[in-house]
Amino acid sequence: GGGGGGSGEWIGEGALYVKVMTDEQLEVLRRQIAIYATICEQLVEMHKAITAHHDSVAGMRLGNLYGDPLMASTSQKITARQRWTPTTMQLRLLEAMFNEGNGTPSKQKIKQITTELSQHGQISESNVYNWFQNRRARLKRKQMVALVSNTESEVEADEESPDEKKPRPNSYHQECMLVG
Amino acid sequence: GGGGGGSGEWIGEGALYVKVMTDEQLEVLRRQIAIYATICEQLVEMHKAITAHHDSVAGMRLGNLYGDPLMASTSQKITARQRWTPTTMQLRLLEAMFNEGNGTPSKQKIKQITTELSQHGQISESNVYNWFQNRRARLKRKQMVALVSNTESEVEADEESPDEKKPRPNSYHQECMLVG
DNA sequence: AATATATGAATGAACG
DNA sequence: CGTTCATTCATATATT
Q1: Which of A60, A82, A151, B43 gives 20 to 30 Å between its CA and that of A113?
Q2: pLDDT tens, residue by residue, A82-133
């Protein structure tokens, strides 16, 4: 499974955390994931048991499922992709390096990274270079947007009386996900 | 919509909601769940194919797992991502702006447009940004297709199909890689 | 219901 | 580096 790194990735500096989901909602979420995990385990075991006797079943193999589940979406099979797509492993390593900070990698550093990542799939130095450029640019843009919306919220909050509560459509991002 | 249940199940009365996870973190979470969903779907299909030949496998059965309401999300998966849909009024205004103001709006302009359009429904700056990007790109593609179909009789010697893309020179290679 | 299309969003690559 | 372009992915909607 793609468990995601240390807590540092999830907790920003100086952020204030308030409980958004109730314990019941968290439990629903946990159960939904657990159901998938259970089914996966059973099916994998079943598959192993079967292929122990019949090493090939209708040409289907689990194979790449273990390898790159993120890329297992249906459409991406036959056509050779024309642009580089990082494998899950490459992405994880890149993210880790990015989170370490240290700014933009030097040319020498990029060479080293490329060599390292090429053990996990096709990659070129320009891919690495572009990736860092894009990652940085988009993070910055996102932060700017967040800053603006935060400022607006504060301004609005100042103009309203504290007792008054206003429906904020901005929170719709959260209510849609994982609702069964 | 994000599927079943009124918002009352998720939003308590009088509760104040603050964003605890960034959109990026939410996306990571969604993808992690989606991994399970994808694996499960494929494994279930595999299981069906297998049990078509062996109707009893070592006493293991999925049983009611298929019937689980959380699993039977044929119409709306729990991992489905919500996506903005412009209202007719928003769409009309966007089209008008696109037709008059040539080119992609600046960030400042986008902010203004967003504020204006939010009077006609939920919308964010990235929605506006994406809309203009897509509108422009698709118009260009349509024009190119039209152009190709107009001139195809003249340039039939060219073996290149319209779908094929020409790899463009990479600036990183030009500026950095070939040095030394 | 299954398939096809339209389109919002994500992202690799390129430009100035 | 910030911005823009081009392609791809995923989902909502339309069609059969």
Answers
A1: A82
A2: 689 998 889 989 999 998 877 788 899 999 999 999 999 989 999 999 999 9
Q: B101 by DSSP, 3-state: which?
A: coil
Q: What is the DSSP letter of B177?
A: I
Nucleotide at minimal C1' distance from the A83 CA:
C12
Nearest to B78 among A1, A32, A50 (CB): A32
Angle between helices B107-117 and B125-151 (to 10 degrees): 110
Arithmetic mean of pLDDT, B90-101: 89
Q: Is the pLDDT of residue B119 over 50?
A: yes
Structural element, H or E, at residue B125: helix B125-151
**Integer CA distances (angstroms), B164 to A81, A167, B159, B167, B168, in order:** 12, 49, 10, 9, 12
pLDDT, tens digit, 9 for 90 and up, residues A147-163: 665 565 555 444 433 33
Interface of B with A in 64-123 (CB under 8 A): 65, 68-71, 73, 78-79, 81-82, 111, 122
Residues composing chain A: 180
Asked if B91 CB < 7 A from strand D, the reply is no
CB contact under 8 A, B126 and A148: no
Choose the closest CB to A57 out of B5, B10, B49: B49
Cβ–Cβ of A179/B14 closer than 8 Å? Answer: no
How many CA atoms lie less than 13 Å away from A43 in the CB half-sphere?
Answer: 28
Nucleotide nearest to A82 (CA to C1'): D7
Q: How far is CA B22 from the centre of its chain?
A: 18
Cα–Cα nearest to B81, from A76, A174, A10: A174
In whole angstroms, what is the distance from residue B155 CA to residue A154 CA? 61
